[in-house]
Write a structure and sequence with these properties.
Bound molecules: adenine, zinc ion
Order of helices and strands: HHEHHHEHEHEHHEHEHEHHEHHH
Structural class: alpha/beta
Strand order of the largest sheet: 1-2-3-4-5-6-7-8
CATH topology: TIM Barrel
Number of strands: 8
Largest sheet: 8 strands, parallel
Number of helices: 16
Radius of gyration: 19 Å
């Protein structure tokens, strides 16, 4: 990528953001299908679209396509009745279109290309095999196909990717332990972490249920990251830290409601993978101005800025960084801080982190 000019760096617009070497640490492979990907996959599989193409990403109306709604469309503002759970069912529908190894590898390759276009040099990507229902019982094969796509992407000079294997919050303790035992013995390529995602509100507290699975993962050398403090309060973040040994929290924004928890996050350097657009689109906060991102930063929490599910939310990382700068008054110095923290929080290996930090400092002219 060519070096940005001083003028480009002075403005916090999308070009300036793209020019910052950075990582993204909270983004789901299930949330990276472009409209074109979906149209192609549906055609290849002879599956009818659930409504006019213009409405496919309208999370305010769909309910995971159990009853597709026909609307005048527009992308992703306001969660409507469907909310996070309806959105997750929509991800199931998308992933059900991926049926062959080649299609899986193509999704992975396209993800790396999308990240590269945003100036992302390394990405942890969350993969939750329960969304990819046709691969039930063949999860390791699915991971291998994704790894093949990421390998090809890296050979082509695109962003490097590590996989965070995600349990679904509603899975049983036995399912979670079986999944982790399989990871610990097969050691699938590119899997660097264990994760939990899904809707906290519908399932309730899960720290105890997943405790053993996370202990096994840690002993097998896997990192740990947990969705918490999104659709439920600070208690989920406490559970993630105390019962699951989480090194990172995905979202975690509702930690702001508990000063003791904030102190703990700061003292232990546990970072939050914050995604303001996702929170607004899925109804956690009414608008950007109400989002606690600046409060978390002021409190000294290691906050990173991410997209969560960029394609169905109709966005890209550089767009969300530029919007955050505009909404919260961040300057380029602040954005370089986000880039620095993204590298620090990532599960990239130490050599890559060192190189990215050096490149970032060079880019911002230190
Ligand atoms: N999976 C994909 N996006 C998610 C979110 N915002 N919360 C929980 N699980 C998810
Ligand atoms: Zn997420």
């Amino acid at each position: 990528m060519p070096h940005p000019t001083a003028a480009a760096l002075a403005r916090v617009d999308e070009d300036a953001v793209r020019a910052l070497p950075k990582a993204e640490v909270h983004v789901h492979l299930e949330g990276a299908f472009s409209l074109l990907d979906l149209l192609r996959l549906a055609k290849q599989n002879g599956v009818a679209l659930p409504g006019p193409a213009l409405t496919i990403f309208d999370v305010s109306t769909h309910d995971g396509f159990a009853r597709p709604e026909v609307t005048t469309g527009g992308v992703a503002h306001g969660a409507g009745a469907a909310g996070l759970s309806g959105f997750l069912r929509f991800l199931d529908w998308q992933c059900s279109l991926v049926r062959t190894r080649q299609q899986a590898a193509d999704v992975a390759y396209a993800f790396a290309a999308r990240q590269t276009g945003s100036g992302v040099r390394y990405s942890d990507v969350i993969v939750n095999p329960t969304h990819w229902s046709l691969w039930r019982g063949r999860e390791l094969e699915l991971l291998d196909a994704f790894a093949g796509g990421f390998d090809e992407a890296e050979q082509d000079g695109l962003c490097r990717v590590g996989i965070a294997y995600s349990l679904l919050r509603g899975q049983s303790a036995a399912e979670a332990e079986d999944a982790v035992a399989a990871l610990a013995s097969a050691r699938p390529r590119r899997v660097v972490a264990l994760s939990i995602d899904g809707d906290e509100k519908t399932v309730g507290r899960t720290g105890e249920k997943f405790h053993d699975a996370f202990r096994t993962a840690a002993a097998a050398g896997l990192h740990r990251t947990v969705h918490a403090g999104e659709s439920s309060g600070p208690e989920g973040v406490w559970d993630a830290i105390e019962m699951l040994g989480a090194e990172r929290i995905d979202h975690g924004v509702r930690a702001i409601e508990d000063p003791a928890l904030i102190r703990r996050l700061v003292d232990e350097g546990i970072s939050l993978g914050v995604c303001p657009r996702s929170n607004v689109s899925l109804g956690i906060y009414p608008d950007w101005r109400s989002h606690p991102l600046p409060l978390l930063l002021d409190a000294g929490v290691a906050v990173t800025l991410n997209t969560d599910d960029p394609a169905p939310l109709g966005t890209a990382l550089e767009r969300d960084w530029a919007v955050a700068a505009e909404q919260f008054g961040f300057d380029l110095h602040d954005m370089a801080g986000f880039a620095r923290r993204s590298i620090d929080a990532s599960f990239a290996d130490d050599d890559l982190k060192r190189d990215l930090r050096a490149e970032l400092e060079e880019t911002i002219g230190r």
